[in-house]
Amino acid sequence: MNDLNDKLKDILFGSDNIVFFGGAGVSTESGIPDFRSADGLYNEEYKYPPETILSRSFFEDNTEEFYRFYKNKMLYPDAEPNNAHTALAELEKRGKVKAVITQNVDGLHTRAGSVNVLELHGSALRNLCMICNECYPLEKIIRSDGIPYCSCGGVIKPDVVLYEEGLDPSILMKATVAISEADVLIVGGTSLNVYPAAGLITHYNGDKLVLINKSETSYDRYADLIIRESIGCTLYNCI
Ligand code: ZN
Hints:
6-stranded parallel beta sheet; Rossmann fold; alpha/beta
């Protein structure tokens, strides 16, 4: 493990164009569970799997049930940034990390101080009226009883990308450019099975692909360095 960590330190030390691509595993160390890995837990409490509940059509047809699941299982307002978020923010301050691309919607990278954060799946911190587009903070959702409504009467929808919805093309484009121009690409906390986001890393042209994930990923054979440790500890050791 120490050899691998030293190798990572060398890679990071030698670059000022690092891009980080992170998945749910980055946030699990802040106490936010990955809903995809825990389907079984919800079977008794919910009639549908999370992927069904978190879809656009389910939101439209069963808004109340969507919000019951969403508020109980997707929102963790007390979660704090962990060592991975802190280390990435620090590496950006030092001019080394150029972009953080995340599949998480918890806003923790920004809270830790990262500036160039590309949120592929949106943010639970923004919630938009479906009629007048008024933006509401997370507290509005948490405090509402059942479905949250705008003062205009419209239903408020979290600004997160649901299943059946496309990613924001401008964010996708920025992420593609950042990855294609990166010297070092660190992929952390994802098994790279969620498309189209995971397909992004095929745009990487460099020879320093670092995977930090506790289990195997579908890109292991392309990696130049694989670390199967805590992403928080691993990155924090490098600053
Ligand atoms: Zn409204």
